[in-house]
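Hi Y.,

Following your request, here is the sequence exactly as I used it, all 442 residues.
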Amino acid sequence: MSDMTADLSARMAGADRLIRRKRLVSIGAPLAVLAYLSYVFFAFDVIGLAERARVDNAMTLMRDTYSYKTVVSRNNRTGDLTIAKEGERAGLYPEGTSPDWVMPRGQTTEIDLADGHYVRFLPERAAIYHHPDFGDIRVQVTSGVQINLPESEIPDWISYSKARVDITTEAGRLTMTRAKTEVFRYFFGWELFWFTLDSPYHGHSVVAILFGPQIDPDRSNIAGAWHDFWENPLWHHAQVFWALGETILMAFLGTMGAALLALPLAFLAAKNFTPIMTLRFAVRRVFDFVRGVDALIFTILLSRAFGPGPMTGALAILLTDSGSFGKLFSEALENVDSKQIEGVQSTGAPVLARYRFGVIPQITPVLLSQVLYYLESNTRSATIIGAITGGGIGLMLTQAIITQKDWEEVSYYIVLIVVMVIFMDWLSGILRRRMIKGNSGG
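Below is the corresponding structure, written out as tokens. Let me know if you'd prefer a different format.
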């Protein structure tokens, strides 16, 4: 009886300890998470970050990704007026012409920004921005740039210094420096994506180009339209698609080269194929080293050694993935069925034939699935690597981001990168299913 009582007491004590431990974990874990989040809040200066945030700049950049701007610019020294879509020479309106919302009137020019907003260029290097809810805002170039508002009354949507004034609203933007005054009006879409203003095919529909009369007397409609689209000086379609090809090639060469390099070395790292522990240990540590160093680090090192270019990026991918493939392939080799190898050996086949017909067919599904998966993954990685090595779509994306000029180009490149990754994922999935099923069915 006493033994039963002691056993029951021990069980109850154990249950009490378990309950206390679970209660401690249920209370301590949220407190630990809360303490960590509090540390992050102060360590990363979230309050200061919120104070330094420029929402107006972010909104301007965001709007640039899905819209285009027509720029009305006046040289403050000569008074010359130019109007250009995207501010580019290829989008320049011919002299004496303008859109219907720009109205030159002698020495003054009125620019309608819609919704009651308008800008009026005045003589003597002055301009007025009319805001329907705020009134007239006059800016003028004297010794510097002056505004007719006390600094205490300048709203958040106006950025002012002695060298520059930026008035940014939902209708448009006015920028004035000592050299020039510019007005930006935004329109939805990517204007001049197909043809620039100097192309005879600008403004013509697809139906008119395909089935209508010949537009350019020197070229057929299809050939001429394709040439003007492909060689578009604003969007650079030819260079963009060439860069996409470089990115895919970089990923393909790096992935396939890593697989070819890792497969023979994997035999040296597998226990059932390399009984020498010292050699096996050395090969495995090499695999650990090359896959432990990120491809970006190899990219920086190789770019200093071999210079920029897509081949440098392919070598960086090759080095990193050779370690990953070596580990995966060696583990697959250690799990092969020895009976199939013995069956090939019983026919009197040499060593290479035993590997070819007894080992490779068993690990082929693993090899194919891993290689194709890494190929799809490296297509994304090649975008970032290309930004460092100076090749592929990554370089063009980085250049477009750094210049902060045409953010619609940034969104164009991002869309193409997403489509490229989706395509590679779809293609690798098809190849993986067909090859593995074909091997298993045979």
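Residues 2-49 form one domain.

Thanks again,
Q.
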